[in-house]
Structure formats: structure tokens, C-alpha cells
Design a protein that fits this description.
Structural class: alpha+beta
Distance between the termini: 56 Å
Number of domains: 3
Shape: globular
Largest sheet: 9 strands, mixed
Strand content: 15-25%
Helix content: 25-40%
Radius of gyration: 29 Å
């Protein structure tokens, strides 16, 4: 099978996404008063409406309608004043009533769009010489529906129903408010699809309508892909990749499917329209079922639910609840504090990180804010990953981050000692200055003391001195390392380098450099 890069030289992929997001921040289900359950004992939050018992009547959750209107406005959709709930029929035990309540041809949110910024590394999938670009992605609709029950297949392969010895079902999830966003087929590479889903997750997290956890399944994606020859406008036969629950799975499943379809077509074999499942352990997609059509679902308006009529006042109420969105926040960070776009994007991706960062940055100079961002995204984030701590657990406060950066800026703390200092901070609730001295981590910036170390290192480094005089200034890195070793890591590396350059300069400038250097 050809690689993705080889395939995309001759073929163009046409990709559309269906992204399902549970409204996990609400208290009750979509059509009843049952508590939204996240990890509770199975089948403890159910009622006649959830279970579809005869005579049970559904009532729409107003907070869920507010949430989907906010999502639509944030995605530049037209909010429909009137829409209707429909019944989508299918026979599978995850819906006891054998149908799912969803929306018909007219959804609450129609015809939106998002502009997707594609960085250079991701642009390479579209073309090897491509530069960063902005891709407008049209959104066909965002509609409201109820989630199905959770099924666990015991035995078989990778928890699938195939060859399972038995299946367990938990109706706690049944009836959870779920919004589905459907894009137009405007995406062309797996990298673009991944970036779109990442951006949508940023928006929904900022709106506060969902925890958007791909691991627990509260956000998941179906990817539709077809191929056509480059230069052709005719659409090919599409296949759907079902229930992709990570950004990596989305990218890899689409990449494999593009290569699989290209191999089929180049061998003169037809691509069959079907639903496929991604098998991560085998790194391939496999057939689940032949693709159903709308006729198979027997859609018709739900007779138990009146049409939704949204007033202008209701829509404006939802608009006023929308906070500053990630794109606006990123632009502000770059303009006000001079952050790089990549840094600003990472900080704007999660409201918890955004709130923490903005508290730390309040009243600080742009130079200090830039350092705060660098330390938070690199050193602190790395320490979180290594230790399992997070911003949620209070292991670090915004004020302590500012103090940490002050210690770095005043050369009292070396960057390679940040993790050790944070470890102490968690173990002992004290002032960073005190902990610094207590652990012997305070960086030495006394010129006289460092000068002695420089002299000792140079005394035993005659070979490196000769190399420097011959023009090999790279040996400075080695000499700085020796000085740091001599000082047991407590010396100021920047000052060590200055002292070394000064000392070596008295022996004559390196060959090929001017005295001014």
C-alpha cells in the first residue's frame, strides 16, 4: 500500500466530519428530569421516558436548547426560529424504544462556518512545498438529539460485539443531551480534519457546554472520506469511519482509509459505500455494516413534541452568555503581550489554563508575560505531565508562577531546577525564596566566585582554548558545561559564558573574527 504522501500526489481526498458532543455540564437529561450520570452505578438514573415505556411523554430541556444556540452563534450559524424534533428508527438495544429523538431537515443551527488556520507542518500533507494557510470550513448544520445507552461487549476483540460472549447495557447515558455538528466536505487532509476538531473542542470548552472528553466519549467523531483524481470535480463513493475517540485516531483512520481507497481504485476495484471501524492495534479500518440511507431510519416528526419556536429575545439572551472566544483571545494575546501564535493558541485552548494565565499576567509587562507563558507551557506543563499534578489541584498558584519567573529573571534560579523547586512546593507549603535556600538551589551569580571556577576549568582545557583560537567557538558550550559541573549546577550559565568569552579574549580573538566581536 502506498504512503499518504504518495497517494495525495495523484488523488484528492474529500473529507466531511460529524462531531458529536454531549452537553455534560447540564444537570439533567434532554427529555426528562433524570440526573446526568458520569461514572455512577449502571442503570441508577433512568425513568419511563429514558426507557421508552408506554405513555411516557418527553419534555425538552431549555438549558440544552440554550447551549446549542450558543454553539451555533459561536460557529457563525443561522439560528432557525422554528425547527422540529423527529424520530429516527432503528432496532438496537441502546435505545429501548427503538428510535432516537433527533432533528429533521431543519436544525436549530444551519449554514455556519469556521476559518481554520493550518500551520506549515500540517500544510505539508496537502503539498510538500505548502506554506501556512487559512481554510474556510462550511458547517452544514448543528442539531440536537439524545445520546444512546452505553454498551459493553465482554470478550471478543478490542471490546467489539464481534465474537463477544455477552453484552452489558447501561441506560444511564440514554437521553443525555447531544449536539451533532456536520461539516460540508471542505477538508482535504487528515491534518486539516484533526485541526478542525481541535478548534471545535476549544470553542465548546470556552462556552462551558461540555467537558469535551474524548477519553470518556463525551466528544467523538465520524469521518466521511472519498477520493477523486486531482483536477476532477466529481465526488467519489464515500466511506464513514465511525466513533473515532481521539485526535490521533481521527487522523490515522482517515490516512489509512485514503490509502486503502486509492489502492482499490488503482486496481480497478469499486469502493463500496459502507460504515467502517478503526482498529488501532492493527492500524487499519474494517467493515462494520453497509451504509444505511435515510429511508432505512423511517424519519418522521415526533408527535409527542411540539415544534420549537425560538424568540429573538431568547437568541439574544444566548448571545450575551458567550464569553470571549479562542480566536479573539489568541489575537489579543499576540497584540497585547507579543506572544507567538503557537503559545497563544495553547493558552487559549483550555479555560482553566486561560484563567490561570490571565491571573498571573495581570499588571505585568509584556516581557514578563512572555516569560510567564514560556515557563507555564514548557517547564510547568512538563512537571504536571511527569508528576500527575494539574492546575485544578492547586499545586501552583498564579502568584507563585510570577514569583518563579522573578527568580529566573534575577538569576537566582536555574531553569533546570524548576521541577525540583516545584516538588518541594507541593511537599512543603512555604515561600519559594525559603524553599530555594532550604534545598540549596539558589543560583550563584557572584562574579568573583564564578571567576575562580572559570580559571580552574580553563587551566585544564588547553586543547579547547587552542580550538577557540582557531575559530571554533562551539567549544564554548563544552566549557560552560564544565563550569556548571564544577559548580554542581548552581552557577549562572549565562554569566559563565560571558566570563569565558572575556577570559579567552585576552588570549586573542578566534581566527576569522574581528576584534570588535
Amino acid at each position: 500500500m502506498k504512503t499518504l504522501a504518495e497517494v495525495l500526489q495523484d488523488w484528492e481526498a474529500v473529507i466531511g466530519l460529524e462531531i458529536h458532543t454531549e452537553l455534560t455540564t447540564l444537570e439533567t437529561k434532554m427529555f426528562c428530569d433524570c440526573k446526568l450520570s458520569h461514572g455512577d452505578a449502571p442503570n441508577t438514573h433512568v425513568c419511563p421516558v429514558c426507557l421508552g415505556l408506554p405513555g411516557a411523554l418527553p419534555v425538552p430541556n431549555q438549558q440544552a436548547i440554550e447551549a446549542i444556540v450558543m454553539a451555533g452563534l459561536a460557529c457563525n450559524c443561522d439560528i432557525q426560529r422554528r425547527s422540529q424534533f423527529y424520530r429516527k428508527h432503528y432496532f438496537y438495544p441502546d435505545m429501548a424504544k427503538n428510535y432516537q429523538i433527533t432533528q429533521g431537515p431543519v436544525a436549530i443551527c444551519m449554514h455556519g462556518h469556521l476559518d481554520l488556520e493550518i500551520p506549515t507542518d500540517a500544510a505539508a500533507e496537502r503539498s510538500l512545498d505548502a506554506r501556512a494557510y487559512v481554510l474556510p470550513v462550511r458547517i452544514q448544520r448543528i442539531h440536537m438529539e439524545e445520546d444512546a445507552a452505553k454498551m459493553v461487549h465482554v470478550g471478543g476483540e478490542e471490546g467489539r460485539i464481534s465474537l463477544a460472549s455477552e453484552s452489558l447495557i447501561d441506560y444511564n447515558r440514554c437521553g443525555t443531551p447531544l449536539i451533532e455538528l456536520v461539516t460540508e466536505p471542505d477538508l482535504r487532509t487528515p491534518a486539516e480534519a484533526r485541526l478542525f476538531m481541535e478548534k471545535l473542542r476549544q470553542i465548546f470548552l470556552t462556552l462551558g457546554i461540555s467537558d469535551c472528553s474524548l477519553e470518556s466519549g463525551s466528544m467523538r467523531c465520524d469521518g466521511n472520506v472519498s477520493l477523486r483524481r486531482r483536477g476532477s470535480s466529481e465526488l467519489g463513493v464515500k466511506c464513514e469511519m465511525k466513533n473515532l475517540n481521539s485526535f490521533k485516531a481521527l487522523h490515522d483512520a482517515l490516512a489509512y482509509e485514503i490509502c486503502r481507497q486509492a489502492e482499490q481504485l488503482e486496481q480497478g476495484l469499486p469502493v463500496v459505500q459502507e460504515t467502517r471501524h478503526w482498529e488501532p492495534s492493527q492500524h487499519c479500518t474494517v467493515t462494520m455494516r453497509v451504509k444505511e440511507t435515510n429511508d432505512d431510519y423511517r424519519f418522521f416528526p415526533d408527535p409527542d413534541l411540539a415544534p420549537l419556536d425560538l424568540s429573538d429575545e431568547f437568541i439574544e439572551h444566548c448571545r450575551l452568555r458567550i464569553p470571549e472566544l479562542p480566536d479573539t483571545k489568541i489575537a489579543r494575546y499576540c497584540a497585547s503581550w507579543g506572544l507567538r501564535h503557537r503559545e497563544a493558541n495553547m493558552l487559549a485552548a483550555d479555560p482553566i489554563w486561560t484563567h490561570f494565565f490571565e491571573q498571573a499576567a495581570q499588571g505585568q509587562s509584556p516581557q514578563t508575560v512572555q516569560q510567564l507563558a514560556k515557563v507555564l507551557l514548557n517547564d510547568v506543563a512538563g512537571w504536571f505531565k511527569a508528576t500527575g499534578h494539574s492546575l485544578d489541584d492547586g499545586s501552583l498558584t498564579p502568584e507563585q508562577l510570577v514569583e518563579l519567573c522573578h527568580l529566573l529573571d534575577s538569576h537566582q534560579l536555574a531553569s533546570n531546577h524548576i521541577s525540583a523547586l516545584l516538588d518541594l512546593l507541593v511537599q512543603q507549603d512555604g515561600q519559594l525564596e525559603e524553599l530555594l535556600d532550604q534545598a540549596g538551589l539558589r543560583q550563584i551569580s557572584d562574579t568573583a566566585a564564578l571567576q575562580k571556577i572559570v580559571a580552574a576549568v580553563l587551566a585544564r582545557s588547553s586543547d579547547q582554548q587552542r580550538q577557540y583560537q582557531m575559530g571554533n567557538t562551539k567549544v564554548l558550550g563544552y566549557l560552560v558545561g564544565q563550569c556548571m559541573k564544577e559548580s554542581h549546577g548552581s552557577g549562572n550559565p549565562k554569566l559563565f559564558k560571558e566570563l569565558l568569552v572575556r577570559a579567552l579574549g585576552t588570549l586573542g580573538a578566534p581566527v576569522g573574527t574581528s576584534s570588535a566581536e
